[in-house]
Every structure is written in structure tokens, then in C-alpha cells.
């Protein structure tokens, strides 16, 4: 089992990244998901590797190849993402949660295939696990970075999310980032102060984010 590099200051930063969407199945052939491409998360993985980090990627289904050199764990459902992330987190120094997790799942998963009834149907949905909140609860000495995509009261809502999920920092994304090649975001700390802002291609934003975190090493953050 890999040990967190906290134990060895010479060791490169080892970072968990969650990325991509998750899927919640209604039956064996149908699922709910969202339109996340995974590009932001994969750009973060790439930027981390370029900086010399050991990156552990837990990814939902995307059309992207895992960046060369990362430790790759493929998942489909939120429960699988949660299980993988919680298992891998103790071996890391921190986590960047870039996944676009499906917030709800059908209360029951039907085995086989649901047949048409000839009329409307109602799906009962329940909340999925909050992966980031669980990582936050179990973080101990590790650092935790969340993402927030907010349509209204962006700073206020992002700060609430940071607190609710026990994050150290949160990346506030403009809704225009979805499906876009470019990104504009602010980086908030626990007091709600804007610590940095990045815009440009997802690679540029990812470079800004991992560079900022790496810079904290000098302040004793690992
Ligand atoms: N997240 C997660 N598990 C979930 C939902 C969200 O790990 N079940 C993480 C995301 O990866 C992101 C952060 O939590 O880093 C915020 O996600 P977001 O969808 O903005 O927040 P929610 O708590 O789901 O609230 P809402 O969608 O209602 O705004
Ligand atoms: Ca959500």
C-alpha cells in the first residue's frame, strides 16, 4: 500500500483526482448521467504529472484516454467512485474533486430491462453518496479541493459548499464552462477570499491550479 508522502518530504506530492460524470442505472441498459466531458479533470491530471506529482485518477466514463503516467481507476456509478476514492485517499496527500457526480439515482435498479407499460411512469429517485463530503470528513491531515458550478450567488454558494464538504479550497466555475474548451474560475479559501483567478484553456486553468497548490508546499502543506 502506498504511504502518503507526508511521511517523506522528499517524495513528490501524491494527489487523488476525481473526474468525469457518473452513471446511475435504472435497469441493465438505461442510466441517468450528465454531459460532463471530463476534460477539466483530465487537464488537472496532466498538469500534475507535468509538475512531477504522482496522480491517482478515479474517473467516470469519458471519451478521453487516461493521461500517460497516472494511476487509473475506471468507475461507472457514484457508489463505485465513492468506494474507489475512499480506499485510495489515505495513500495521498490531497484530493481535487473535479467529477460531475450524478446527484440522484433511481431508488431501485431493475435487473434486465424495464418494459413499456403503455402509459406514463414515475421514477422514484434518491440522493447518491456525496463523494467529496465523505473525503472531507475523513481528511485528517490531507488537503481537499472541491469544485462548484453556481448559477446564482456564486461566491456565497461556493463558500457554503466548501464548509459543508470540509474543503480547504474551492474552485468556483462559471456555468459557461460546461462543454466549453475554455474556462474562467476563481479560487476561494475558507474565509471566502479570492486567492487566485484563472481563465483560458482548461490546460491553462489546470496549470494555474496545480501550480498554486504546489506553491503551498513551501508553507508546509503536503
Ligand atoms: N460532489 C461529489 N459527490 C456528489 C456531488 C458532488 O463528490 N454526490 C463534488 C463535486 O465533484 C464537486 C463538489 O462536490 O467537487 C460540488 O459539486 P456540485 O454539484 O457543485 O455540488 P452539490 O453538493 O452536488 O450541490 P448542487 O448540485 O445542488 O449545487
Ligand atoms: Ca451536484
Automatic annotation (TrEMBL):
Gene3D superfamilies: CoaB-like (3.40.50.10300). InterPro entries: CoaB-like_sf, DNA/pantothenate-metab_flavo_C. Keywords: Ligase. Residues 14-213 form the DNA/pantothenate metabolism flavoprotein C-terminal domain. The keyword Ligase applies. The keyword Ligase applies. One of its GO terms (molecular function) is ligase activity. GO terms for biological process: coenzyme A biosynthetic process. This is Phosphopantothenoylcysteine decarboxylase / phosphopantothenate--cysteine ligase. It comes from Planctomicrobium piriforme.
Amino acid at each position: 500500500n502506498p504511504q502518503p508522502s507526508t511521511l517523506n518530504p522528499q517524495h513528490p506530492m501524491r494527489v487523488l483526482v476525481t473526474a468525469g460524470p457518473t452513471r446511475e442505472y435504472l435497469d441493465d441498459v438505461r442510466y441517468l448521467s450528465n454531459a460532463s466531458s471530463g476534460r477539466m479533470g483530465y487537464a488537472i491530471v496532466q498538469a500534475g504529472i507535468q509538475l512531477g506529482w504522482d496522480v491517482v485518477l478515479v474517473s467516470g466514463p469519458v471519451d478521453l484516454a487516461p493521461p500517460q503516467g497516472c494511476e487509473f481507476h475506471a468507475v461507472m456509478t457514484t457508489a463505485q467512485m465513492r468506494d474507489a476514492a475512499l480506499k485510495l485517499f489515505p495513500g495521498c496527500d490531497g484530493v481535487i474533486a473535479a467529477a460531475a457526480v450524478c446527484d440522484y439515482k433511481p431508488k431501485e435498479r431493475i435487473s434486465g430491462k424495464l418494459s413499456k407499460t403503455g402509459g406514463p411512469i414515475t421514477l422514484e429517485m434518491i440522493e447518491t453518496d456525496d463523494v467529496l463530503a465523505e473525503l472531507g470528513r475523513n481528511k485528517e491531515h490531507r488537503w481537499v479541493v472541491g469544485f462548484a458550478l453556481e448559477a446564482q450567488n456564486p461566491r456565497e454558494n461556493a463558500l457554503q459548499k466548501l464548509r459543508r464538504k470540509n474543503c480547504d479550497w474551492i474552485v468556483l466555475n462559471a456555468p459557461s464552462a460546461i462543454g466549453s474548451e475554455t474556462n474562467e474560475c476563481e479560487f476561494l479559501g475558507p474565509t471566502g477570499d479570492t486567492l487566485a483567478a484563472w481563465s483560458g484553456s482548461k490546460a491553462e486553468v489546470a496549470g494555474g491550479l496545480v501550480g498554486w497548490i504546489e506553491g503551498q508546499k513551501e508553507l508546509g502543506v503536503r
